[in-house]
What we know:
The chain is an alpha+beta fold. The chain is 35% helix and 26% strand.
Amino acid sequence: MSDLILxxxxxxxxxxxxxxxxxxxxAPERGVWEQNLPAVPSLSLTLDGLQTETRxxxxxxxxxxxxxxxxxxxxxxxxxxxxPILERVRELADLAAPFHVESTNRVPTAAGLASSASGAxxxxxxxxRCAGLxxxxxxxxxxxxxGSGSACRSVFPAWSAWEGAHARxxxxxxxxxxxxxxxxIDAGPKSVGSRDAMNRTARTxxxxxxxxxxxRADFEAGLRxxxxxxxxALSIAMERSTLRMHASAMGADPPILYWxxxxxxxxxxxxxxxxxGVPCGWTMDAGPNVKVLCEGSSADEVREALAxxxxxxxxxxxxxxxxxQVAVEREAS
Length: 333
Ligand code: PMV
């Protein structure tokens, strides 16, 4: 245990991560704190420049936890998504006091990138440290997972893999000079959130079993490609993983279709670029925006090609980013 922060606060920063090999579907919960265990292994890249900063302090005078995100006090489902992390921290630290949480997303508003992963990772780090817990990165990863499955990967810098209770680091930003170029097509909220969508897919899609059955081979191919810095092999594995994930979702009842015409246009341009000798691969999450992975040296060329596509409203270039950063801000008593 480190000391409980009663005077002052703890501030943590975590960055957004994008899965190259996808998580889609949950394993059965075997007991308490077993939520968001993955049915399939995933592999991701934590990005620089897209970050959540979260400040946590105890609020013994308050009746309940208060979470303020970008100046707005969370209520209902948004507050409840933070609750498992805060409850688990209180249980581990044997405390009862409510937390006061202030969180800021440093993600361009037009980015259309989910900040739930960076948000849950920053919340896990700041609240646990505030409660006097000294958790390992693996334990922080498992704690972040309670808020959002994919958050467990934002604990680690650059390349990380997730199977089971927590993610693990694969390689840092220095391992490979790549860029993830985000083609923004719709920056608004998702038509169906990832949690509901993956549960519906698992419950109703006849294609779900095929997705789960084939996921490990893509994961292993992805791991080998990252280790070898082989963009061609990684592109094949990431596109196959993405297409199979989306195929399983399209097979749900009612169907889940995140694609917009411009999403397909981006995929076509990525194919043209690859044919022209600019190696790159694409992926898509629970929304129509397409993320293109390329060598850092090709980032400008890829950005220009994507910016010219009708329906692409913005293009954002990111590199591999850092893992969690935590600082204690004490007040003189
Ligand atoms: O953990 P969630 O609810 O943020 O789900 C993430 C789902 C995808 O973004 C589509 C894939 C992934 O591995 O991040």
